[in-house]
Amino acid sequence: MYIKDFAIIDEIDINFKPGLTVITGETGSGKSILLQALGVCLGAKADKIMVRNGSRRAVIETEFKDREIRRLISDQGRTKAYQNDEPITLANLIKMNETRVDFHGQHDQQLILDSNRHIDYLDRYCGHEREVNSLEDTYRELNDLRSKLDRLHQSAEETRDRLDLLKFQATEIDAVDPKIGEDFKFDQLYKKLSHIEEILRTLQKVHSKLSTEDHSLLDQLSNTVQALASLEKYDLELTKITDLLKSSIIQLQEAGSEITSQLSESEFEPDELSIIEDRLNALETLKRKYGGSIESVLERRKLIQEELQTLNNPEQSEKALIEIIEEKEKMFSMTAISVHKKRKEKSNDLSSKIEGAMEELNMPGAHFEIRIGQERSDHGFVDYNNELHMGNPKGIDTVEFFLSANPGEPV
Fold first, then answer.
1. How many domains does the chain have?
2. Residue 56 shares a structural domain with residue 121
3. What is the domain-level CATH number for residue 40?
4. pLDDT tens, 21-52?
5. Is residue 49 part of a domain?
6. Share of the chain above pLDDT 70, in %
7. What is the largest CA-CA distance in the chain?
8. Chain centroid to CA 108: how far?
9. Phi, psi at 199, each rounded to 5°
């Protein structure tokens, strides 16, 4: 886990080893900030106040066995997310990683009552999270492919309307031709040029006080060094002070050179500010309409082009889509059936262990049961035991825990 310029953290790189890791420290030392950073990286709400004071952006990176996740937060409050170095929307980031990390607080034991989470607890015990992640990805891809196929089956009028909209969106994006990172670059340049008079006035004032006016700071320091140097023959300890002042003179001379350079390079055309402002407005318009970042705009442009090709070649596209869907359904079915069998096998083992633990807690006769169900349907696409089952992001199963804490009582 890598964190830079987040809250009070300057920069830190942590490698967690297998097993238990305990983080200790005094109140205010930053323990909770590490957990907060992890939550933000996985999609929790981010805010500009999280960016370390004086920094332009905060960076949080986490590396898991199967993926790398990175979240950026600008000092303006804008965020960007990447998974395996590919841009990803916040909604997809949350959806694909919502069960990756458990954060336990004072009342988190109540989460066991949420039956929607029971399948995740069983899967964690089974140790097949990678297969379940694959199911979730394939299920999402299947939904996208079926949506494309449905659009192909729309009426001719609906297809024309859709084509007109896509062409308009493509033209709108192409007219601006956004480049990754240019919004940040132009934003910084706009801030500079909109305050250029104040910047130049201050630089000229500093340059004058530093070196050009009578009794400038450099002149005074040089005279001071000469005065001290003349006394070094009486006290060699003065050499240390003289050397420090000489170093200061060199640094101030370098600062003066840098100021001169910036003053000479600060000329700009009168209409340059309005050009930059127009460019920023165009970029912001695209970002508002197509996902909030230039990366998402470019991803949307790619999807638009793919859909245009599909709608312009309906017969060829339909055949190709059906073939891809059938292949994806086969992949999903094989993995879903394998995961189902493992859940059935491990559920009895987990139930026995929980009942054994309850007996040690002086709860003899308590009964714990894990019920695994499926949704059978003629419209399903997973063929198991000569029956068709509907799929879901976790495969074909629904899981729910039942408990009878008292002997003889039903679960």
1. 3
2. no
3. 3.40.50.300
4. 888 888 777 788 999 999 999 999 998 999 99
5. yes
6. 97
7. 105
8. 25
9. -65, -50
